[in-house]
Amino acid sequence: MQTMTTPAPPRAAASGPPPALVLAERGGEEIFLTLTVAGQSCAVPVLAVRDVLATQAITRIPLAPPEVAGSLNLRGRIVTAVDLRRRLGLPPREPGEAAMNVVVEQQGELYALLADAVGEVMPLPREGFAPNPPTLDPLWREISRGVHREDGRLLIVLEVERVLAIR
Amino acid sequence: MDDLLADFLTETHEGLIALDAALLRLERAPDDRPTLSEIFRLVHTIKGTCGFLGLARLEKVAHAAENVLGRYRDGTLAVTQDGISLILRALDAIRAIVAGLEASGAEPPGDDAALIAALDAAAEGEAPAAARAAPPAAEDAAPEAGGAAAPAPEAAASGPAPSPAAAAAGPTAAGPAAGGAPQTIRVSVDVLEDLMMLVSELVLTRNQLLQLARAQGDSALTVPLQRLSHITSDLQEGVMKTRMQPIGNAWAKLPRLVRDLGLELGKKIALEMRGAETELDRQVLELIRDPLTHMVRNSADHGIETPEERRAAGKPETGRITLSACHEGGQIVLEIGDDGRGLPVERIRAKALAQGLATEAELAQMSEREVLRFIFRPGFSTASRVTAVSGRGVGMDVVRANVERIGGTIDLRSREGQGTTFTIKIPLTLAIVSALIVEAAGERFAIPQIGVVELVRVGAGTDHQAPRVERIKDAPVLRLRDRLLPLVSLADLLRLERPRGTDAAAEERFVVVTQVGARVFGIIVDRVFDTEEIVVKPVAPILRHVTMFSGNTILGDGSVIMILDPNGIARATGVAGDGAGEESGSAGAAEDAAGLAATAALRSDAKTAMLLFRAGGEATPKAVPLGLVARLEDIPRERIELSGGVPVVQYRGRLMPLVPLSAGGWPAETAHGGGRQAVLVFNDRDRAMGLMVDEILDVVEEPLRIERGPAQRPGYLGSAVLQGRVTDVIDTAWWLRQAGEDWFAAPPAGAEGGARHAVGPRLLLVEDSAFFQHLVVPALAAAGYAVTAVGSPLQALKLREAGAMFEAIVSDIEMPEMDGFAFAQAVRGGGPWARLPMIALTARADPADAARGRAAGFTDYVGKYDREALLASLRECLAPPVALAAADPPGEEGHAA
């Protein structure tokens, strides 16, 4: 199937004006979107993000891997939702607790990463990066590109491709 | 201008532009194999197409260029700049000819001998010297040689002046382009895709608006909103339609291709196409068009033998290529088969070894099937000689690549001496299917209607009319009429949690009776909603391993819903086929009985039992052959319910549609009036429908002579005089169709050999070739005949002695022991068969033979194997067509596959 592959500029609805694409990689820093998953701060490269949506009606998919929360309709396209809490082995969301959808595209398919909250779009300087500590949970090591040190918090930088490599 | 030609011109223009770019790329990187292959294929396509359009000049140039490219591709000739220049000049020559073609509709005269000689010399490896000699000639053919991708009108104006037509067109260079402007335009699929997406959004927005308006009760908005709603629906439908095309569009050129190939190769080839109406996504269609053409061409060129070879092999002289398409189990299945010589397994093995594709040890371990699959490798061709048609090893690899590109699979089976069949399965992907929306444990799912046989309401404890789900140990089963249907619970299967407070056992539920191949099983669901046309979208790759779903879709209300795959469910539950097989056996026996009863009514010379009744408030009595009626019922009117506007009645555990035999439909208010309704019940396999009549009069047994009235009324065959009164004989087939079901589709797969309809004229086929029997019997059975085949006239005569009776005899002529002529004389000589229509089926259909056949007693003489002619002849012989099948011309053969 041929699907629409034109990469749309990210629409970061939750975080003010969308960053210009030219800013996405500037000098020694890359631009990320920060998320919170069960209290843990994470970051995904903003270039991978196509959309950020508020809570959506999600259809459960029986027999799907537990990480797959279901599918939702994004303007006529079917988006598969992956719950980052489950993907990261964190406790499930309380019933009724809203989730944000960070929509990413991989090989022409759209996926929504469910996070508790979406933070901001920000550049992260290269020097702040550290490789995954060897003691990190193997599940996390597998899907994280590394850790970014910030004042007061540590950001887990998620590798979208690996997050979606379920099974 | 010929449509074919216009298409060719469009394609060739695109091809030429692509070629220019590719050649320049090749010049920079002479070792670029993919580019080389691409160039080769493009030229091959141009050549192939003009070959069958009869464009000799173009074909010669393209063929010569292809020869050079072939050497490049095989690595036996080094790519040089001179060589590329030569190919480019050949392209310019092609372009000039194409421009002339566009202007005048015919190839402009001209001499390409020098260019072709240069190309041939280059192919022989003498490139430099010959190339220098070539330019003047090439210049001559193509004055615009320098300009890459010269626009066509320009070339036409300045190009081949000698053609008067071209000269006339010259001054108004825009003229031919405008005049020949096609009624269609090419639109990028991306644009359609975007449109589709926008329309989906529009639908959702519309729905939201409608909901808001309803909530507010604001009448000022109602009218414009309704208009918006209608326009949106129409728009949605229109956009959907832009993507769908019947596969017949891709086949349109094939009959001509086959005909021309037959002439060119000196072969007799018949092309049979089934299921041309099967709709495919436009994009899918485009992608399989060329592969299909390639495959048909291959079949004609390599598969079908010459008439002499076929005669020697004991086959009919005319080879057959069969194309069929159908939706099956959520896929589109295409079959391209021939009854030719089959693939030479040993040659393929040897070639694979020679090309180093496998070692001897590996080959020894491979099954024949695996060996055959080598033909899908690039550059693999077993044709020992290169013809203008094929044999260059381009084709099957392209076919495979194209099929796989759209997520399909290709497979083949081949028996040496018997033919080759390719099966292409294309996933539904974008195809629109009709699906049943069901609910289990609070979740909705779609079941493709294609596999659904019927719906049965089960379970509510108090309702004794509805059948109940019973359990054998833990396995749920349903007694459905006389069979025991294995059941699977959708909620259990998908491990859905039931909402608290619902008791699974006590509730009233539904069983979706589903057929997969020969297996029939029921899926238990909680609710059944509606059927909806859905656009199937593939599931995300991370869900591909869940085989229970064939895709997902977005419903009209904007929700995402999973599409169940009956195949996957059957596999997952291990619903075995053994039980189902037995059932179909017993059902077959029942059908035979019904068939005998019904066919007794068919012979125009015999007495026919007719049921007389009155209907539609008309005084004229109506009649129907009694053999067709399964039962007569008298139903209390209050039991008749309306379902989707159609009157139905719960009958033997299922809903039976009722069709009023009157012009005005069925007045719903009569339901409340009490009283009873007379119904004629018709049965076929496991379907039933009722014909509502006013009053049943009598059963009479009289010879039936139907006169077709001057004004043919739909639903009536004509009039006959029964019991001294003019009586309207109803066309049962027409009324059955009013019930909405396809009664004439052949039974689904698995009914091999027993593909008999409940009603249908009995035919005796006398044919010594088992192969031919296999060919004819299913075709006739699909058309509704009950066929008995015997291997020789002597066997046939034994049947006569045993008292067997038929409505017609179809016989071969050339048979050992006793030939068709002698057989016909024996039949006509006396006995119960003496007056039966006899149709001779023969490869020798010359007038002298036909005359001899008629003299021997044959009613008609049909060429072997002209299916249409045979069916037409049978229809004629068996008139008046009282029976279902005879009254219904076999236009439904698409379902027979």
From TrEMBL, chain B:
<feature type="modified residue" description="Phosphohistidine">
    <location>
        <position position="44"/>
    </location>
</feature>
<dbReference type="Pfam" id="PF02895">
    <property type="entry name" value="H-kinase_dim"/>
</dbReference>
<dbReference type="InterPro" id="IPR011006">
    <property type="entry name" value="CheY-like_superfamily"/>
</dbReference>
<dbReference type="InterPro" id="IPR008207">
    <property type="entry name" value="Sig_transdc_His_kin_Hpt_dom"/>
</dbReference>
<dbReference type="InterPro" id="IPR036061">
    <property type="entry name" value="CheW-like_dom_sf"/>
</dbReference>
<keyword id="KW-0808">Transferase</keyword>
<keyword id="KW-0597">Phosphoprotein</keyword>
<keyword id="KW-0418">Kinase</keyword>
<feature type="region of interest" description="Disordered">
    <location>
        <begin position="127"/>
        <end position="181"/>
    </location>
</feature>
<dbReference type="Pfam" id="PF01627">
    <property type="entry name" value="Hpt"/>
</dbReference>
<dbReference type="Pfam" id="PF02518">
    <property type="entry name" value="HATPase_c"/>
</dbReference>
<protein>
    <recommendedName>
        <fullName>histidine kinase</fullName>
        <ecNumber>2.7.13.3</ecNumber>
    </recommendedName>
</protein>
<feature type="domain" description="Histidine kinase">
    <location>
        <begin position="190"/>
        <end position="430"/>
    </location>
</feature>
<keyword id="KW-0902">Two-component regulatory system</keyword>
<dbReference type="InterPro" id="IPR005467">
    <property type="entry name" value="His_kinase_dom"/>
</dbReference>
<dbReference type="InterPro" id="IPR001789">
    <property type="entry name" value="Sig_transdc_resp-reg_receiver"/>
</dbReference>
<feature type="modified residue" description="4-aspartylphosphate">
    <location>
        <position position="812"/>
    </location>
</feature>
<feature type="domain" description="CheW-like">
    <location>
        <begin position="607"/>
        <end position="741"/>
    </location>
</feature>
<dbReference type="Pfam" id="PF01584">
    <property type="entry name" value="CheW"/>
</dbReference>
<dbReference type="InterPro" id="IPR004358">
    <property type="entry name" value="Sig_transdc_His_kin-like_C"/>
</dbReference>
<dbReference type="InterPro" id="IPR036890">
    <property type="entry name" value="HATPase_C_sf"/>
</dbReference>
<dbReference type="InterPro" id="IPR036097">
    <property type="entry name" value="HisK_dim/P_sf"/>
</dbReference>
<feature type="domain" description="CheW-like">
    <location>
        <begin position="432"/>
        <end position="575"/>
    </location>
</feature>
<dbReference type="Pfam" id="PF00072">
    <property type="entry name" value="Response_reg"/>
</dbReference>
<dbReference type="InterPro" id="IPR002545">
    <property type="entry name" value="CheW-lke_dom"/>
</dbReference>
<feature type="domain" description="Response regulatory">
    <location>
        <begin position="762"/>
        <end position="879"/>
    </location>
</feature>
<feature type="domain" description="HPt">
    <location>
        <begin position="1"/>
        <end position="101"/>
    </location>
</feature>
<dbReference type="InterPro" id="IPR051315">
    <property type="entry name" value="Bact_Chemotaxis_CheA"/>
</dbReference>
<dbReference type="InterPro" id="IPR036641">
    <property type="entry name" value="HPT_dom_sf"/>
</dbReference>
<dbReference type="InterPro" id="IPR004105">
    <property type="entry name" value="CheA-like_dim"/>
</dbReference>
<dbReference type="InterPro" id="IPR003594">
    <property type="entry name" value="HATPase_dom"/>
</dbReference>
<dbReference type="InterPro" id="IPR037006">
    <property type="entry name" value="CheA-like_homodim_sf"/>
</dbReference>
